[in-house]
Design goal:
Length: about 250
């Protein structure tokens, strides 16, 4: 039975960071619809290991992320798995809203003048949180954007899908490794809104259950099985030896 460890509703346009423990769950809910949750993940034992968006898509033969997908590190391990998703499409190719783009689209609202009504970009938010752990701009990899769907036009351009937001949409991540989580609730870089969108996101940290042989993420792709086997080797965990079934090493 899952136990709730922590609850928090994060306002739009804010940033946060925390450490998730292996096996625990992070459940995120887009309260009003139209939220964007930009996320980065790092191995707290070795901050050089981090979320790798290209490997995550390539290994799972997909352009979008949804239930069943794993979030790969650049060491071929699964940092987290998406075990629940009522939204259905999450972007990890469009990156982050820059400070310059934020000012051009929404105007400049400084903290000194507007206090908590100031308008931050995802870039500024990530850099603020990364600095707390001795990380800099060079450590800011391609990020995940939860609750944001992009589509392609006939000309091949990526466009934000303004019809996709769903009030109450929910995503649950199971953390397959201990992970430093850096996140913000700033606008998606392709969001065409002319007013700065402030959409709050409810967060819950819960206890999870061990991965079982019928786990959807484990069985979604052979590559996911290999990534979770790499996790098992990293932690030298004999309990989940079934993960190694069907894994072949060249």
């Amino acid at each position: 039975m899952k136990q709730t460890l922590y609850q928090y509703t994060m306002p739009g346009g804010h940033h946060w960071s925390f450490r998730m423990r292996r096996g625990n769950l992070l459940r995120l809910t887009d309260v009003l619809g139209g939220a964007n949750v930009g996320m980065l993940f790092y191995n707290p034992e070795n901050l050089l290991e981090r979320y790798n968006a290209p490997d995550t898509l390539k290994a799972q033969h997909t352009f979008k992320l949804t239930q069943g997908n794993c979030l790969y590190s650049d060491m071929g391990r699964s940092l987290a798995s998406i075990i629940e998703d009522t939204f259905g499409w999450h972007d990890t190719v469009c990156g982050n809203l820059s400070k310059q783009r934020c000012r051009a689209q929404y105007g400049h609202h400084s903290y000194q003048e507007h206090r908590n009504g100031w308008q931050l970009s995802g870039e500024e938010s990530f850099l603020t949180e990364l600095a707390k752990y001795g990380l800099t701009e060079r450590d800011m990899a391609a990020n995940l954007n939860l609750f944001s769907k992009v589509v392609t036009t006939d000309e091949g351009q990526l466009v934000y899908d303004s019809d996709a937001p769903k009030p109450g949409a929910r995503v649950t991540l199971r953390f397959d490794m201990d992970a430093l989580v850096i996140l913000h609730t700033c606008p998606h870089p392709l969001n065409p809104a002319t007013e700065y969108p402030r959409r709050r996101v409810a967060m819950e940290i819960l206890t999870g259950t061990p991965v079982t042989a019928d786990d959807e993420c484990l069985n979604h792709r052979p590559e996911n099985r290999r990534a979770l086997e790499n996790n098992r080797l990293y932690y030298q965990d004999p309990i989940t030896s079934f993960i190694a079934e069907g894994v072949h090493h060249d």
